[in-house]
Design a protein that fits this description.
It contains 7 helices and 6 strands, in the order E-H-H-E-H-E-H-H-H-E-H-E-E. The chain is of the alpha/beta class and about 220 residues long. The chain has one domain: Rossmann fold, CATH 3.40.50.1240. It has a 6-stranded mixed sheet with strand order 3-2-4-1-5-6, with helices on both faces. It is globular.
């Protein structure tokens, strides 16, 4: 690897009970499901003995719980970074999309238009979320130049980076996607000279069974 580049393993957290039931999580948490716990342990087994210079995690519980087996296997500490949290979905959090449409029809209609500037009540816009995520990931990559680091985060965060790196016109997570956001997936990216490069996306070879690929995080 070019010593001026940073190699980052972007990891989505394991499946949660709200992933399984189709509820929007955002900044709220639900525990890892039984499958999610197994996925997190599989990640720990995968990385045990590998060279990982730093382990950084979103400060939300589902990300920390996924990072914990990795930290144990590597014998390193977890560094928490709140800037790589999932999007703040405000009043939508804890609800299914059917419930959101029923209870907040006007707000749901705005969301359904996929306007990146729409600010969810008590939450944030897709565009604002995208700016936050890209700023945080570039800060992390620049601070750890030449290192190989693991970052445990969320599906929305992965989507923002994928769209940016592949030059999709918008970084809004409200736009339709054609790429994987599998739970407990490893997504290999590299940052250097101000540019993100995707080396391998949606790696789930460490999992014993299919990972959940759910757009709701």
């Amino acid at each position: 690897m070019n010593p001026s580049n940073t190699s980052i393993l972007l990891i989505r957290h394991g499946e949660t009970t709200w992933n399984r039931s189709g509820r929007v999580q955002g900044w709220r948490d639900s525990p890892l499901s039984e499958l999610g716990v197994a996925q997190a342990q599989a990640l720990g087994d995968r990385f045990a003995g590998e060279r990982i210079d730093r382990l950084i995690s979103s400060d939300l519980g589902r990300a920390q719980d996924t990072a914990a087996p990795i930290a144990r296997g590597l014998g390193i500490a977890i560094e928490l970074d709140p800037e790589i949290r999932e999007r703040n979905y405000g009043i939508f959090e804890g609800r299914t999309y059917v419930e959101i449409e029923r209870d907040h029809p006007e707000a749901y209609a705005f969301l359904a238009r996929r306007d990146p500037e729409y600010v969810i009540p008590e939450g944030e816009s897709g565009a604002g979320f995208g700016r936050r995520v890209l700023r945080a990931l570039e800060r992390i990559a620049t601070a750890h130049q030449g290192n190989r680091i693991a970052v445990v985060t969320h599906g929305g965060v992965l989507g923002v980076l994928f769209r940016h790196a592949t030059r999709v016109s918008t970084v809004s997570p409200d736009s339709r996607r054609d790429y994987s956001l599998a739970n407990a997936s490893i997504n290999h990216v590299r940052f250097g000279a101000g540019r993100w490069v995707i080396e391998r996306w949606g790696d789930v070879t460490h999992l014993a069974q299919d990972a959940a690929d759910d757009p709701v995080d």
